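Technical note accompanying the year-one report. For the benefit of new consortium partners, we illustrate the data format agreed upon in the data management plan: each record pairs a sequence with a structure-token string. No post-processing was applied to the example shown here.
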Amino acid sequence: MLERTKLKKRSQKHGNNRRGFDDYYGGLYGMTKRRYRSGGKQLSLDSKNQPEVYDEIFRIGRLVCKIPFSTVQLNKNLQCKPHRDNHNTGGLGSTLISFGDFEGGEIAIQKDENSTEFDIFSAKYQPIQFLGEKLTHYNLPHTGTKYSLVFFNC
């Protein structure tokens, strides 16, 4: 299904990549904060434009997440740099799962808020839950085609 899905290119050149990550393809599904009106949340444009993808991603989320979530970031071949998820709310963290025909791409998660050390986890076909808003994290390089879903509360 994802191979047939039109994902938007996120790049620095077009202002769609706030964290300075390399260019990648992705989408945001579920509830998002309103950009141009004050307050409130709304269903994302990706959810409205691709309801079948939205439905399938949320079906997967109900199977793999132990935490409630309102929003899902879909990434294709994203190499993310060290960061914290400053738009997460609720203090419940994030759940990450990756799939596709790829090697590598593990996630490195800071051991705790005061540590300079990172634990390395594989999220390939296995959900990883972590406090993305409190702990710095990034993923290692990969080869092949990698999709990842990040479930969180916005």
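Partners are asked to follow this layout when depositing records. DSSP finds two helices and ten strands in the chain.
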